[in-house]
Amino acid sequence: MICRTIQTRKKFPTHQSGYALLVKKLFHGAGRLRGEGAGYTELNKAMTDDPWSPFSSENDFNLASWFIRRKVAKSHINAYFTEGLGSTDSRSFRSGYILRQHLDILDPFHEELV
Length: 114
Known about the structure:
Structural class: alpha+beta
């Protein structure tokens, strides 16, 4: 059994001496592995085999990165492609919706890419 003990010092107003009392709390199972993150192994292998995954190329990745850094709205990303500004080569995304799906693969918990 894995336990984690956390010691904290608390001062109780009713304590006559005014000294802090040491309180211990046990958290059973703290630090225990809960299993592999869903799809982590597959994602790690895919990224090793194809460093631009889930994007189709370095240029595709760079365009997506530019959209994200500039905080371009989905509607403007859609307009970019519908107005023919995007090149005609094969892209892994041609809309803000598909770009968001790719970002969900890279950051499923939305911790890094906002």
